[in-house]
Specification:
About 40% of the residues lie in helices and about 25% in strands. Strand 6 (about 150-155) and strand 7 (about 160-165) form a beta hairpin. The protein contains 4 helices and 8 strands. The chain has a domain at about 55-180: minor pseudopilin epsh fold, CATH 3.55.40.
Length: about 180
């Protein structure tokens, strides 16, 4: 017996030395480390989940603006009128309603925007505002003009505006607004 072990056993006659195999549970340091990792991961993940609707709405606005610009270029290049159709009903319901119509539209639809869950209003050049329940169309002409107007998009507390100039056909975005 070594002198150190003899001193321990002499001081505590009924105590046995503790071996590392008998220790159970986590140390305070291990628990704090795991909590710090969880906190860091939640800080990185939670803001991304909260802004999902805003990113989706923003991408729908960018898509609508891109389709309008595409139709404008197509009209000028092809020499024929080009139309963008904006649908606010689900695609399957739009297909059912279109198949029930007795006449086909004569317009040259080159692009279609589907915005289920987005409220869409259209303001024409006379400032008359219409809430779109089903679909609306914006047509561009080869000479550079268009049917024009302002598309007002809204979803929950977000809103966005896209202006189409009736004389030049230019498309401009009023951007994404929050808190409406």
């Amino acid at each position: 017996m070594t002198p150190i072990l003899a001193c321990r056993t002499a001081a505590l006659p009924n105590s046995r030395p503790v071996s590392p195999k008998k220790q159970r549970g986590f140390t305070l340091l291990e628990i704090i480390l795991v909590l710090a990792i969880i906190a860091t991961a939640s800080i990185m993940v939670v803001p991304n989940l909260g802004g999902f609707e805003a990113r989706t709405f923003g991408s729908q606005l960018r898509q609508a603006q891109s389709l309008l610009n595409y139709a404008r270029r197509t009209a000028v290049i092809s020499g024929q009128a080009s139309t963008v159709s904006f649908n606010v009903l689900p695609a399957d319901e739009m297909a059912r309603l279109d198949s029930e119509e007795e006449y086909a539209t004569l317009s040259n639809i080159v692009a279609q925007w589907n915005g289920t869950g987005v409220n869409l209003r259209f303001r024409d050049s006379t400032d008359r505002e219409i809430e779109i329940k089903r679909k609306t169309e914006v047509t561009f002409y080869p000479e550079g003009g268009s049917t024009g107007g302002t598309l007002l998009f809204a979803q929950e507390d977000q809103a966005g505006v896209i202006d189409v100039d009736p004389f030049t056909g230019s498309v401009s975005s009023g951007g994404l607004e929050r808190g409406l």
